[in-house]
Amino acid sequence: MGQDTREAAMRLKREHDAVVLAHYYVPAKTQELADFVGDSFALARIATTCDASTVVMAGVRFMGESVKLLNPGRRVLLPEPRADCPWPTWPTPLSSPAAAPRKTTLPWYAT
Predict the structure, then answer these.
(1) Tens digits of residue pLDDT in 74-87
(2) E-assigned strands of the chain?
């Protein structure tokens, strides 16, 4: 990544009072521009401690939603709004009986 790109990113962050959060799995070049890199839970918590009025969340949609829930007064931007993760839509025992845990006869398994 060139110095011009870094300087442009720093300028934009200053102009827009923004902090950039990046998930571990985004490209290394994106992580280089981020103020914080971490997992989704850590980044959502970090966002609550930042002074910036705008949070740029380089990750998937549910991460941006989590940041917004914890920071309702801030503008939250997703650089790639189509980025998605199937994890939040996986069936749960409440949404699908087929996903409910199976009973077992193992003595250490509590139901």
Answers:
(1) 999 998 767 666 55
(2) 18-23, 36-38, 54-58, 75-77
